[in-house]
Design a protein that fits this description.
about 35% helix; 2 domains; alpha/beta; three-stranded antiparallel beta sheet; L-serine-pyruvate transaminase activity; aminotransferase
C-alpha cells in the first residue's frame, strides 16, 4: 500500500493549556485532531490508488498508524460491525448478541464459575473504578492501593471520592511495590480490598498477579483482590479462577480491539457476595450493581431487560472482536504479544535507549515506555514520527512526563504481520531519532 499521508499542515502555535493526560499529543498539533494527525477525508477517491496492496485496509481510508497504548488500530470486520442497522436494545436479535458477548467474556477472563458476574456498561475504563469504589467498598473501609504510576494514582483518587480510607504503597517511576512490603502492609491492618494496576499505561510496568493473589489469600484471606486490567486484558495472561481474583476491570479500546465506549469487567462470586452484604446502599446510580446485575444476568439468559440504554453498535463490534479472539487458543495470542514485545524492546536496546520499566520481569507486553536521549525533546520526536505516518504517545507520569515516549503494540498490529505496523514503527523511531540529531554512543 502506498505511504499514507496526513491531511493539513500543523499550526505554528500549540494550544494555550494542555492537561497532563494530553501530553501524548504532539505539541505542534491542535488538540481537537485525532491523536496529533488529521485523517484524510472519507470521500477520498481510492480509484487512483495502486491495486496491489500489502495491507488489508479495504474499509478504512489511508491514515497514520496509531501505536499508542490505546485506542489501538482496529480490524476491518470489527469496524464493519459498528455499521449495524439500528435495532431495539430489547429486541430478540440484539438480546441474543448481547447474551453471547457476556458469555464470551467468561472465556476471555478464563472463569467457569457460574457465580462470577460479567458487566458490559457504556463508558470508558475509568467507569470500572467507579463500579469497584461505589459497590464493593463502603465509606470508611480501608483499601490498600499498589501504586505503580499515573493510573494507580487515579484509582486511589476514585476510591477516596466514595469515602474509602486509602493507603497507597507507592513505587518509584518504572517500578512496582514488592511482595515483602505488601505482606508487611497487609499484616499491619485489615483491608477490605487491595487494588493493583496490572499494566500501568503511564510507565509500562507489569504487575504480577498470581503470586500477589497467593500472598493476599495467605496473609489477609478476607481482602478482595481487585485488578485494573485496562491495558492488560487480551494481551497479558489473566487466569481469573486459577489465580482467585475477585475483580478485573477493563475497556474495549485496548487489546480487546473494539472502539472506545465500553466498560468491561468481571467479578467473582465472593465479590458479588461482598456487594450483597453492604450495610449501606451503593454510592452511585448509573454504576450501581443493584441496578445492573439482574440486567446482565437476564441478557446472558437471552431475556430482554432494561435499566439504561446500551450501545447496540458497540456491542456488535465487541461481539466480533471476542469471536476473533476466541477463534484461537488464548495462549497463542499471549505468546504473539510477548514475541512482538521482545522484538521491540530489543530494538530499543539496540538504539542505546532505556525503558522506564527497567526490570525485564516487570515490563508489559502490550506497550513499551522509552526514555528519550537527553538531546532529544518529546516535542520534536513526536511530530517527526507523525510525518512518517506513525503515532506514538508522550509521557504522562508527572515526575518524568517530558522525558519519555510510549509505543503501544496490541491487537491487530501485532497479530497480523502483513500490516507491517511494528516494522514501520521501529524504522520510523530510528529515523526520527537520527533527524533529531541522536547518534548511539
Amino acid at each position: 500500500m502506498p505511504r499514507r499521508t496526513a491531511g493539513g499542515a500543523p499550526p505554528d502555535t500549540p494550544p494555550a493549556r494542555l492537561s497532563l493526560i494530553s501530553r501524548h499529543l504532539a505539541p505542534d498539533y491542535p488538540i481537537n485532531t485525532p491523536y496529533t494527525v488529521e485523517r484524510l477525508p472519507s470521500t477520498i477517491d481510492t480509484s487512483l490508488l495502486p491495486k496491489t496492496q500489502t495491507r488489508k485496509m479495504s474499509s478504512q481510508p489511508p491514515h497514520p498508524t496509531l501505536l499508542i497504548p490505546g485506542p489501538i488500530e482496529f480490524d476491518d470486520a470489527v469496524l464493519q460491525s459498528m455499521s449495524h442497522y439500528s435495532e431495539s436494545h430489547v429486541g430478540p436479535a440484539f438480546v441474543a448478541t448481547f447474551g453471547e458477548t457476556l458469555s464470551m467474556l467468561r472465556k476471555l477472563f478464563q472463569t467457569s464459575d457460574p457465580a462470577s458476574q460479567p458487566f458490559i456498561l457504556s463508558g470508558s475504563g475509568t467507569l470500572g473504578w467507579d463500579l469497584v469504589a461505589s459497590n464493593l467498598v463502603e465509606a470508611g473501609e480501608d483499601v490498600l492501593v499498589l501504586g505503580s504510576g499515573y493510573f494507580s494514582d487515579g484509582f486511589a483518587d476514585c476510591l477516596r471520592v466514595y469515602g474509602a480510607n486509602v493507603t497507597e504503597l507507592k513505587a518509584a517511576p518504572g517500578q512496582k511495590p514488592q511482595l515483602p512490603e505488601i505482606e508487611k502492609a497487609l499484616s499491619e491492618k485489615r483491608y477490605k480490598a487491595i487494588t493493583v494496576t496490572h499494566v500501568d499505561t503511564s510507565t509500562g510496568v507489569l504487575s504480577e498477579l498470581k503470586n500477589l493473589s497467593a500472598l493476599v489469600h495467605k496473609v489477609s484471606p478476607d481482602t478482595l483482590i481487585l485488578v485494573d486490567g485496562v491495558c492488560s486484558v487480551a494481551c497479558e495472561e489473566i487466569d481469573f479462577d486459577g489465580w482467585k481474583l475477585d475483580g478485573v476491570v477493563t475497556a474495549s479500546q485496548k487489546a480487546i480491539g473494539c472502539p472506545a465506549g465500553l466498560s468491561i469487567s468481571m467479578f467473582s462470586g465472593r465479590a458479588m457476595q461482598a456487594f450483597q452484604n453492604r450495610k449501606t446502599p451503593p454510592a452511585s446510580y448509573f454504576a450501581s450493581m443493584k441496578n445492573w446485575t439482574h440486567i446482565m444476568q437476564n441478557y446472558e439468559a437471552k431475556k430482554p431487560s432494561y435499566f439504561a440504554t446500551p450501545s447496540p453498535q458497540l456491542i456488535h463490534a465487541l461481539h466480533t472482536a471476542l469471536t476473533q479472539i476466541l477463534a484461537s487458543p488464548l495462549s497463542e495470542r499471549f505468546a504473539l504479544h510477548r514475541a512482538a514485545s521482545d522484538r521491540i524492546k530489543q530494538a530499543v536496546a539496540d538504539l542505546g535507549l532505556k525503558q522506564v520499566a527497567g526490570n525485564p520481569d516487570e515490563q508489559a507486553h502490550g506497550m513499551t515506555a522509552i526514555y528519550l536521549p537527553e538531546s532529544v525533546k518529546q516535542a520534536d520526536i513526536l511530530p517527526s514520527l507523525a510525518k512518517k505516518n506513525v503515532v506514538f504517545a508522550g509521557g504522562i507520569h508527572k515526575e518524568i512526563a517530558t522525558k519519555y515516549i510510549r509505543f503501544g503494540h496490541m491487537g491487530v498490529s501485532v497479530l497480523d504481520p502483513r500490516r507491517g505496523d511494528i516494522d514501520r514503527a521501529v524504522k520510523a523511531l530510528q529515523d526520527g531519532l537520527a533527524e533529531c540529531g541522536y547518534q548511539k554512543a
